[in-house]
Backbone:
C-alpha cells in the first residue's frame, strides 16, 4: 500500500470520529434510554443536559411579625360606699370676756389665790369693801364657784387672782353647769323644777348654773336668771374652829323654801367643811333646776335643838339668837 493511501485512510477515520462525537453532543438523552454500551462490554455514562434548578432568592431574615400586646383585664374594684367627709361644724367665735364690777364683802379679810381652789397659793389678802373687776369664773373639784378678778396692788401692778364667789358682790353670775334636776311641764304649760331624789341618777341638762343666795336680801344683789339656767339655792355656816361645826350639824334644822315649797333632804347637798380666810365654813348648794319666767322668792330659817356656839356668839334655845332668818327675791326672764 502506498503511503498516501494510508494517511488518507486515517484522516477519514478521524473525521468520522469527530462527526460522531459532535452528533452525540447535540442529541438529548432520552429520559429512560439505556446507556450505550462501550466497546469491550462495559457500560458508560454519556453526559446529558440537565436542567439546572431555578435558584429562588430566599430572604436570609424572615420578618416575623411582633405579637401585639394584649392587655389582660385586671380586677376592677367595685365601687364601695365611701362616707362623705363630715361637713365643717361652725365654730362659735368666743366673744371677749367682759369685765364686771365687783366688791369683796366679808366679816374678815379675804384671801386671793393663784388658782380656783383652796389648795392654791394665797397671793394677796384684801379687806372687805375692796373693789375688783370680775373677768372669769370656774368651779373647783368640790363644786365651789370661784371668780377670777383683776385689781391693782400697792405697787400699781395689775393682779389677776381667784376668790370664792361667795365673797364677791357682782352681776357676773353664770358658769358652765352640770345640772342635777329634771324640768317637768305643769298643766298650764309652765315649767317647774323637781328636786333630786337621793340615790337617783339624773340626766344632764343644757344651760348655765346660777347660785341664788337664800338670804341675799340686804346683803348682795340677786343674780340675773333666765329660763335656760339651772338654779341652785345656796347657803353656808362658818365657825371659828372645826369642833363648833360638828356641834352645829348635830342640832341644826334648815327650813329653806322656794316659792313656799320646802327644800327637803337638804343634808345631802352639804359640802365638806373647808378653811377660808381664817375660819371654817360649810356650803350647801340645793339644785332646783330651771324656773318659769317671773318673780320668785326663797325664804330661809334655821333653828337648833340645843344651844350651840360658832366661836363668836351663841345660838339656839335660851339665847338671843334662837333662830336666823332671811330671804331672797329674784326675777327669772325668758331666755328667748
Residues:
Amino acid at each position: 500500500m502506498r503511503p498516501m493511501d494510508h494517511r488518507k485512510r486515517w484522516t477519514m477515520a478521524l473525521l468520522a470520529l469527530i462527526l460522531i462525537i459532535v452528533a452525540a453532543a447535540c442529541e438529548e438523552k432520552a429520559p429512560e434510554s439505556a446507556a450505550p454500551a462501550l466497546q469491550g462490554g462495559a457500560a458508560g455514562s454519556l453526559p446529558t443536559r440537565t436542567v439546572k434548578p431555578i435558584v429562588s432568592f430566599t430572604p436570609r431574615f424572615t420578618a416575623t411579625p411582633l405579637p401585639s400586646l394584649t392587655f389582660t383585664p385586671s380586677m376592677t374594684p367595685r365601687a364601695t360606699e365611701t362616707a362623705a367627709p363630715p361637713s365643717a361644724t361652725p365654730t362659735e367665735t368666743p366673744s371677749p370676756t367682759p369685765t364686771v364690777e365687783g366688791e369683796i364683802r366679808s366679816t374678815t379679810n379675804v384671801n386671793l389665790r393663784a388658782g380656783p381652789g383652796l389648795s392654791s397659793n394665797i397671793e394677796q389678802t384684801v379687806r372687805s369693801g375692796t373693789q375688783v373687776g370680775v373677768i372669769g369664773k370656774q368651779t373647783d373639784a368640790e363644786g365651789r364657784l370661784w371668780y377670777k378678778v383683776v385689781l391693782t396692788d400697792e405697787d400699781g401692778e395689775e393682779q389677776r387672782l381667784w376668790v370664792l364667789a361667795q365673797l364677791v358682790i357682782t352681776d357676773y353670775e353664770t358658769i358652765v353647769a352640770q345640772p342635777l334636776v329634771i324640768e317637768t311641764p305643769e298643766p298650764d304649760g309652765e315649767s317647774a323644777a323637781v328636786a333630786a331624789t337621793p340615790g337617783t341618777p339624773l340626766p344632764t341638762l343644757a344651760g348655765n348654773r346660777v347660785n341664788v343666795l337664800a338670804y341675799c336680801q340686804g346683803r348682795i344683789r340677786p343674780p340675773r336668771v333666765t329660763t335656760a339656767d339651772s338654779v341652785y339655792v345656796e347657803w353656808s355656816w362658818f365657825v371659828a374652829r372645826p369642833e363648833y361645826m360638828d356641834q352645829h350639824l348635830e342640832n341644826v334644822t334648815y327650813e329653806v323654801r322656794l316659792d313656799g315649797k320646802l327644800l327637803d333632804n337638804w343634808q345631802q347637798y352639804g359640802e365638806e367643811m373647808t378653811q377660808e380666810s381664817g375660819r371654817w365654813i360649810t356650803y350647801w348648794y340645793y339644785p332646783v333646776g330651771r324656773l318659769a319666767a317671773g318673780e320668785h322668792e326663797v325664804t330661809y330659817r334655821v333653828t337648833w335643838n340645843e344651844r350651840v356656839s360658832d366661836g363668836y356668839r351663841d345660838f339656839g334655845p335660851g339665847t338671843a339668837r334662837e333662830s336666823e332668818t332671811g330671804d331672797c327675791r329674784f326675777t327669772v326672764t325668758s331666755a328667748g
In short: The radius of gyration is 62 Å.
